[in-house]
């Protein structure tokens, strides 16, 4: 009979006791809070409680600074000691490193002390060490929010999980982080979320512990994630501290923050008001929980990098190639140059840059922008009709010729119908411009040196290079004079490129009137000896200061010199501009050599090699009386070959058009 009555009284008493011990607190931020901080925990200037920063192997604790009586022992002798109901709610935020894993987690902790001497970080969350883990003497209840899996072989095999532990890190209850929304269980990532709201409620009567989590600003889910009966009496001491612990480990370090916290003993914790809470700390971008994003970003950046590299390489390669072309001329392999550069170099081929017209086109002076080198750019308006590839090969091959007495070809460029050839720039102009300059006289030593130089250049073309190159247009206007009065033979090989343009070889004569060997008009076939013929004429021209063909058309230099030679008065032909200052032997040698070279029959002409030996007085010149072929016919032959030349083809050089016409008239008369 008594027991129901007794029970009723007891219940009344208990309710009174409960209300008597009711207690609560609420912190929106921790600016002015009754919190004790231990370890690396601190309150930042936003009022946010930071348990750990992003440093390896650190621990932080934060506890409400007064212990709270949780165990009802008042009637322990009659009833089993009882744990008071409590309810708490807090908002936490985990900021993981942008690359690599974060860790290890934070825990709502109920402990007999705020001090945890010898406790370890990492998986042990700054609460236990390996020797006291799971020891019943700890009296610690933990609700862990762990982000690293693999602690021993316990239930918390999922990294992102919520667990309830007694006295250690082996979870009694463990659930992957999730919340219920309209009956569906939504898993979510606690590290990824801006912040997480957590509610922990314990009913002392039913001994049921509820744990609920939800992403920040979501309403509280009606169904808890964990709702299980758990006997925590054995863990509790009469008076306990409530708070938080967090830790990082080696190579796994997240920042752990608490934004706000409310607590109530024997009652419902006051709700947190989001508008009063500090803003969650910003997340580091590119979390390691996004391996796909990371991979995609990695691939993209790798691609971008590769593309940039390629672009750089191509640009560099292009630049380098041009650079090399301009710099490395010595290597003797001219390349195609950029039209843009040549256009720039010659200031757009303006009149003021024009330094000459003749021999296939106009010549412009220019300064290559990339190297600052002076060049002569020969612009030929109509490029050869032959295949570009064949043509280029030929030019490239000519470009490999390198000799001190040649105007070296540095490069070429084809632009629309224009062919551009780039040569060394030679400052003193052509030999003929010096020979026939009224205000300037070349002295004998200069002339002799020039002629020897031309002979050296021709020798290189004819015999010393890998293949025989016939110049085809040896004449005084094709010989350029450099600063030291050395001769530089220009335009070599080009005549051939053009002669191929002509329909028939027999009617084609490449060369300039007065320098064309007689046999050329018949066969049209240039040879080394036709070059020697022209060189002979050049010798006579240079000594006499007289053009090969007179403007009257009745005068022919070769004949005139020969006549004087036969009359034994050869020195009569010497240029008056020399003012009788010259070495007679040398002059006589050069004049007679000129006659020897300009003989009518090609076979009787010496080779250029022999010519250089005569010029250097290595061999004596043969006696004039031995020249059987210099008969009376020579003069008429010279005239008849001029007569035979077709009008349209006579001048392949632009420099002497009127003269050739006149010669033809002379031939008829
Ligand atoms: C903090 O502690 C002081 C002194 O013990 C007390 O007056 C105050 O109410 C406490 N504040 C909170 C929010 O618990
Ligand atoms: C708890 O903190 C409050 C506020 O800082 C302080 O006034 C109070 O004395 C502290 N109580 C204990 C027991 O340390
Ligand atoms: C905490 O204090 C700082 C200044 O020290 C202030 O900027 C911040 O707003 C405060 N936070 C809260 C939640 O009161
Ligand atoms: C313990 O319970 C008994 C009844 O079972 C009651 O009479 C007594 O007052 C209680 N003790 C305290 C300290 O309240
Ligand atoms: C573990 O912690 C306990 C209690 O603080 C301490 O007595 C013990 O020496 C610690 N053990 C180790 C291995 O640090
Ligand atoms: C969890 O707690 C219950 C009740 O105290 C106990 O029976 C069970 O063995 C515990 N489980 C683990 C994994 O500790
Ligand atoms: C715990 O959750 C269960 C199931 O949702 C609920 O019935 C109970 O009232 C909850 N307990 C507390 C103390 O909120
Ligand atoms: C939250 O705080 C703001 C600002 O103090 C207040 O206006 C609002 O009513 C509060 N909301 C609740 C639900 O208490």
General description of the model:
The chain has 669 residues and is an alpha+beta fold. It folds into 3 domains: 29-274, Jelly Rolls (Sandwich), CATH 2.60.120; 328-424, 2-Layer Sandwich (Phosphorylase Kinase, domain 1); 431-666, Transferase(Phosphotransferase) domain 1 (Transferase(Phosphotransferase), domain 1, Orthogonal Bundle), CATH 1.10.510.10. It is built from 14 helices and 28 strands. Strands 1, 3, 4, 9, 16, 17, 18 and 20 form an 8-stranded antiparallel beta sheet that branches. Strands 2, 5, 6, 10, 11, 12, 13 and 19 form an 8-stranded antiparallel beta sheet that branches. Helix 9 runs antiparallel to helix 11. Bound molecules: 2-acetamido-2-deoxy-beta-D-glucopyranose (8 copies). One 2-acetamido-2-deoxy-beta-D-glucopyranose (NAG) binds at residues 28-29, 31, 45-47, 278. It is a single-pass type I membrane protein. This is non-specific serine/threonine protein kinase.
Main sheet makeup: 8 strands, antiparallel
Query: How much β-strand is present in the residues?
Result: 15-25%
How many strands appear in the DSSP assignment?
Answer: 28
Shape: rod-shaped
* Architecture per CATH nomenclature, i.e. the level-2 architecture of the largest domain: Sandwich
Our count of helices gives 14
* CATH fold-type name of the largest domain: Jelly Rolls
Low-pLDDT stretches = 153-157, 322-333, 499-508, 631-669
In CATH, what is the class of the largest domain?
Answer: Mainly Beta
Main structural class: alpha+beta
Rg estimate, integer Å: 54 Å
Bound small molecules, deduplicated: 2-acetamido-2-deoxy-beta-D-glucopyranose
Helix content: 25-40%
Signal peptide: 1-22
Family: In the N-terminal section; belongs to the leguminous lectin family. Belongs to the leguminous lectin family.
Organism: Sphenostylis stenocarpa
EC number: 2.7.11.1
